[in-house]
Amino acid sequence: MSVSDDNRDSGVQSSIGAETRKVTTLRLQEMKKAGERISALTAYDFLTARLLDEAGVDMILVGDSASMVFAGNDTTLPMKMDEMLYHVRVVTKAVKRALVVADMPFMSYHKGEDEALGNAGRLMQDGMAEAVKLEGGTSICHIVERLVDAGIPVMGHVGLQPQSIHTYGTYKTRGTDEPEAKKILEAAKALEKAGAFAVIVEKVPAPLAQRISKALAIPTIGIGAGQHCDGQILVTPDMLGMNTQFHPRFVRRYAKLSETMKKAFKSFRDDVKERTFPTDAESY
User: Fold this and answer.
1) Residues with a known catalytic role
2) What pLDDT, in 10s, does the model give residues 139-198?
3) 211 and 195 Cβ atoms separated by less than 8 Å
4) Entry pTM
5) 58 within 8 A of 231, measured Cβ to Cβ
6) C-alpha distances in angstroms, 154 versus 66, 178, 193?
7) Based on the structure, what is the number of domains in the chain?
């Protein structure tokens, strides 16, 4: 084998190693430094989580968005800790490579550091999550510090914060004026200083997301925040085209599963009605 063949094989091995290596908070930091984009999607059940992990998605967020796309609520606010813990537990059973981050639901960290620590600890110890995510800016930095001091990795969330939807009164883009843009940027910086390992940036103008990404040493994960973040995340049922009632401009639909699923359900119904299912081959 020639030297060039040796080098080519080494390159292949390095590539394979990078793709199969367990994703950790340190690995995300390395990806940012190397300019490698971070892929992230949500999961709420075992089968979806396993498929995401097998596909090589870097980070899986067990989001409180389950309140909407799983439970059918209008907002994320009804999600309770016990419900969140259930989703986290079934997702972590399926995942081997991706970093699993658990959302801390509404009012699970707002009453003080001790309660926040207890709830985050449940998600880590009972749910086997590898990190937690909190929405908020400077007002929650003392909580972030407490969790990080206890050995719990924390991801921040700035820009549009769904748990504050009743305060906003709308899901419109945040940070479109300079005073709010500056506030969001300062919030991201404060979260980094408090010890957050990454920050989700949701629904802000692309130039603002770029400013945030350049200002932080930790990775930024965008959703509706343009192409300049260090990674991108979408809600899985949205990008699969399962949620037909929700299609903002930032969601690219990679499939139309709502149509595929309805077609399959109708075919099953018809086969049962016409007595063509099951056949002898499908019987015992």
Assistant:
1) 202
2) 999 999 999 999 999 999 999 999 999 999 999 999 999 999 999 999 999 999 999 999
3) no
4) 0.91
5) yes
6) 20, 27, 12
7) 1
